[in-house]
Amino acid sequence: MTLLEKLAKDEFDSDALRRGALGPFSVVGAVLRAPGAFIRDLRVGRNLGGYAGSLVLTTILFSAGYGAILGLFQPGVQTLFAAAKLPVVVLGTALLCTPTFYVFNGILGSKFTFQQTATAVLWLSAAVALVLVAFAPIAWFFTVSTRGPGFLTFLHVFVFFVAIAYGIHSLNTARKYLDHLETSHTSIHGAFLFLWFVIVLFVALQMAYYLRPFLEPLPDHRFFLGERGLFLEAFGSGVEDVRR
Amino acid sequence: MTVHGLLLRRETAAPGLLAAAALSSAGFGAAVGSYTGRWQILYDAVKMPVYLLGTLAISFTAMHLFAAKDLKPRETFAAAMEAVALTAVVLGALAPIVWLMSVSLPFSAGLQTPRSQQAYRLLILLLSGSVAVAGIAGVARLHSRLRSVRLTVAWVLLYQFVGAQMAWLLKPWVSCTGRDDRFLPIRDNLQGNFYESVYHTFLGLFS
How far is the CA of A113 from the CAs of A117, A139, B24, B203, in angstroms? Predict the structure, then answer.
């Protein structure tokens, strides 16, 4: 069975989601098992409010869960701080990049409304948060059983990489299926989507760098360092650390 | 609704386009001004719509001169307004990203440190890049509407000719002093103009 045939068979009761009959996290079922049903609803603008609410909630709570594990490296107030920071990065990046996605797609021939675009972007952020929470037990296990921050940093970067790859895959699948359903115009422009992913990555890294630290708390237990800088500086200092 | 109609190339009323252009460009201006902060946010939010719409107002009669054979003044205005509004909406869409960079790039009072000077240059690059991308979108829309390369080129040259001087007159945008103490230093800005400055910079390369 091809991907498009599988997507065509997906079923999800979004009316029940809108009525609140399925529970706040039920959209996870759609992300994992029935993306086709979501994409069809997205195309016709059906129950987008219900989807958006559930996707936002999923993004916030799931990324907060992984954030708490980041902060568990040195338990205490840093656990709370990291749990608050990670949803800001994941959801904040999605919100900051939504207008760009909407306007450029519109210029390139899409007929998506702002609400449809925002729901598609939230779909991406929820997919990212879902992978983060799926890896949370493994990250927790290594956090409580490892002393130095070196390996943990590597592990977290790897998990973020997998999460972003899955998010990109989810939205790209939506683009393919929408192209299949919509023959007269493109809903999400393919080449622009990949350029936009680069912008999203840039924004996410800059936001995370500004809100640092995530692992080790500051000596005076401030929420964040508040020192301005371009995220590329982190790579520069990383290279220097390795040289030393 | 106006913005959606504009993106989908539907006929949109001029007042709606004017409002969309003013609000979107004000948002972009505020994002750029956030780097210096405080009053500069308001200054740039006012200056950006003045820059885009003021340039259109000043160059309109000359633009219409080139188009008068085929278009009525109302049609000329509608076509030009649509292109300017689309440029402004693209800038508005980029505003959240520019805002993030503005508030997180290194800044120091008076821009004394090398890091803040580097950030200042990066921000100028981001500002110019955003305006270039938005301008390309506007020109592409203009061409698809006018369907005449000659007219599109003439209009773009006229708009740019006036626009460059307008941007010069309205500076500072980012404020190289790192302070929000100058809304419109008109006496300084009237010393020379954009084209004289380019000429002197060019001569400076060989001295």
Answer: 6, 38, 17, 51
Shortest CA distance from B1: residue in chain A: A113
Question: Tell me, what's the ipTM?
Answer: 0.85
Q: How far is A215 from chain B (nearest CA, A)?
A: 20
- Residue A66 near residue A60, CB atoms below 8 Å: no
Give B110's DSSP letter. G
Query: Which residues have C-beta within 8 Å of that of residue A106, sequence separation ≥ 6?
Result: A112, B4, B7, B8
Distance CA B190, CA B194 (A): 10
A242 confidence band (pLDDT: 50, 70, 90) = very low
Please tell me the predicted confidence (pLDDT) of residue A239.
53
Alpha helices, DSSP H, located in B39-113? 39-67, 73-104
CB atoms within 10 A of CB A120: 27
The DSSP symbol for B109 reads G
pTM assigned to the model: 0.88
Q: Where are the domains of chain B?
A: 2-204
The mean-pLDDT minimum among A154-168, B17-31, B170-184 falls in B170-184
Q: Compute the half-sphere exposure of residue A69: CA atoms within 13 Å on the CB side of its CA.
A: 25
Dump pLDDT digits (tens) for A4-28.
Answer: 888 888 888 888 777 777 777 888 8
pLDDT of residue A200: 95
State how far residue B193 is from chain A, nearest Cα, in angstroms.
34
Q: Which candidate in A207, A230, A232 is best for mutational testing of the B interface (most B CBs within 10 A)?
A: A230
